[in-house]
From TrEMBL:
UniProt-recorded name of the protein: M28 family peptidase
A Pfam family the protein falls into: Peptidase_M28
Family: Belongs to the peptidase M28 family. M28B subfamily.
Source species: Neorhizobium galegae
UniProt domain Peptidase M28: residue ranges: 211-407
Coiled coil feature spans: none
InterPro entries, per the entry: PA_dom_sf (IPR046450), Peptidase_M28 (IPR007484), Peptidase_M28B (IPR039373), TFR-like_dimer_dom_sf (IPR036757)
Matching Gene3D superfamilies: 3.50.30.30, Zn peptidases
Signal peptide positions on this chain: none
Length: 560
């Protein structure tokens, strides 16, 4: 970036925050579209070319809900993608399943029953409960607040093949105190009976996406950085995701002032369908513009929930291995904190791993650890009616925006893209070393570890050349090779292997492409199924080997 760093204007940021606090922005509603029009007016005024798209999305808006326990009414909400009950509701015995993990379900017959689960409603519990024949779910909040959630295990809008994975249970959340009384009754063997009544408006509706882009002069077809965040909200959603939308607008304004330093373009996307369609907007965009994204998009920066009051932890935001250094430089420069980063979870509109686009962030600043176990570290008001302007800290919003500005500035200005595939190789080598020990005597892993070493050496050579490169033609050759390598390597790191169909929205293991090897390694010695698992494991090894060899070829220095 320039020697004079860009400084976000706190007053402008808070002006956006005030605007976002005026409307509840449920996906596909008139109020949401009105707010999208505000985004469009603002970003157009900065010189960006804008397009407001409209597409079909499978959206689920929770409505009324009622819960009675042995005839006593308790406070509750239902959830996006929950099943609507008949008018009279459903009634069944309640059975306690702790946190609703696979192990918690073992040995318990939940068919035809309503399960009681500790914690905020999630898609993985919904999938397990549906598969085991439960008819309802009661989730116990970690406190007195009831947290809105989308519980679909399908990433994006469902197809004819994935629609069967949608939840088959009615789902409600109740407060901690009500849940504790019900939990005690279950533990005492009193077999409490619950009646759940839920109304959920689920179906196809038109939703918007705002696309804004700006490119270096005379290069409208240049490669670009994708900068994105969702605009739909639960309730007023002033932090989630008004804070990030304010960050996006202010970053767009300031970056446009230095367009003459850019080596590539900037495309900004505001999504709908994040909260009520399981990332339906970004998933549709990835599918609809797949070819253009593959050919031209070189990195994705997503932002979510910036500027929260008390959000003083800047060390733990998610970033792909090859971009960790970019995140660390920005965070340490602005805050002095050492960014260690973490692996991306299956969230945050990360719909572009199949395309092969390196990505970073989602939520950026987090709350310090507290005594109550929460699903996120984004404040007790997250996903509740209390997510209002009072929970935005202007100084934190300015700080978070400055970090994002520095990241985008480096990605836009660097002559050679700062994609460090030595970090990727080190991460993969760590995974393979552990597997090699577990697979000793069952499968030779030496060929894989050898080609990972070769990948690291090729990446080191690319890095050395990149640091000294001043010729724009050679720099462009290196950038194209890094782009082509990412199309091979990112899916290996973050997908099960199909680049063209989104993996489900359930929690994923690290390096899911290695699952075939892990499954063989997990079998105990002498297990009768080892020969069967070895067949799949060999095929998994060969796929990984092929991808890595292609990446080594792409990253070779010949011709540069």
């Amino acid at each position: 970036m320039s020697e004079a760093p860009l400084q976000p204007d706190r007053q402008i940021l808070m002006g956006h925050i005030h605007e976002f606090g005026k409307r509840v922005k449920l996906s596909g509603t008139a109020e949401e579209l009105e707010s999208f029009r505000y985004l469009e007016r603002q970003i157009s005024s900065y010189g960006y070319r804008t397009q407001l798209l409209s597409h079909d999305a499978y959206i689920s808006l929770p409505g009324k809900a009622a819960v009675e326990i042995d005839g006593n009414v308790v406070r509750c909400i239902t959830h996006s993608m929950s099943v609507s009950t008949p008018g009279e509701g459903i009634s069944a015995q309640v059975i306690y399943v702790a946190e609703g993990t696979e192990a918690d379900f073992e040995g318990i017959n939940v068919k035809g029953r309503i399960i009681l689960v500790d914690g905020i409603a999630t898609e993985d519990v919904a999938a397990l409960a549906s598969a085991r024949g439960a008819i309802g779910q009661l989730h116990v909040s970690p406190n007195e607040h009831l947290y809105e959630m989308c519980v679909s295990p399908v990433w994006g809008s469902p197809s004819q093949y994935t629609r069967t994975q949608l939840p088959k249970t009615a789902i409600c959340t109740i407060s901690r105190d009500d849940g504790e009384r019900l939990r005690q009754a279950c533990r005492a063997g009193r077999a409490p009976v619950a009646r759940l009544t839920t109304e959920v408006d689920t179906g196809w509706r038109k939703t918007p996406i705002l696309v804004a882009e700006l490119f270096p002069d005379n290069r409208p077809d240049a490669p670009f950085i994708l900068f994105s965040g969702h605009h739909d909200t639960w309730h007023y959603g002033v932090m989630d995701n008004g804070g990030a939308n304010a960050t996006m607008l202010e970053a767009a304004r300031l970056l446009a002032e230095r367009r003459d330093t850019w080596q590539r373009g900037l495309r900004i996307c505001f999504w709908s369908g994040h909260s009520h369609g399981r990332y339906s907007g970004s998933a549709w965009y990835a599918d609809e513009y797949w070819d253009e994204l593959e050919q031209r998009c070189v990195a994705h920066v997503n932002v979510d929930s910036t500027g929260g009051a008390g959000a003083d932890i800047l060390t733990n935001s998610a970033v792909i291995d090859e971009l960790k250094a970019v995140a660390a430089r920005a965070v340490e420069t602005v805050t002095g904190q050492v960014h260690r980063g973490r692996r991306h979870g299956r969230a945050a509109d990360q719909s572009f791993w199949g395309v092969g686009i390196p990505s970073m962030f989602g939520s950026l600043s987090h709350q310090p650890p507290g005594p109550v176990k929460m699903l996120t570290a984004l404040g007790w008001w997250w996903h509740t009616p209390h997510d209002t302007e009072e929970h935005i800290d202007p100084a934190n919003l300015q700080r978070d925006t400055e970090i994002v500005l520095r990241v985008l500035g480096e990605l836009l200005d660097a002559r050679v893209l700062p994609l460090d595939y030595t970090a990727y190789a080190a991460s993969l080598k760590h995974e393979l070393d552990g597997l090699a020990a577990d697979l000793a005597g069952r499968m030779d892993m030496n060929v894989l570890t050898s080609v990972v070493d070769e990948l690291r050496q090729r990446a080191e050579a690319i890095n050395r050349v990149a640091q000294q490169e001043t010729d724009p033609v050679r720099a462009e050759i290196i950038n194209d090779r890094l782009r082509r390598a990412s199309r091979l390597l990112v899916p290996l790191n973050y997908t099960f292997g199909d680049r063209f169909h989104h993996d489900n929205a359930l929690p994923h293991p690290a390096w899911p492409s290695l699952s075939g090897l892990r499954e063989l390694a997990a079998l105990p010695e002498g297990h009768a199924d080892i020969p069967f698992f070895a067949v799949h494991a060999r095929q998994t090894r060969n796929r990984i080997l092929s991808v890595l060899r292609q990446a080594c070829t792409v990253l070779a220095l010949g011709g540069i």
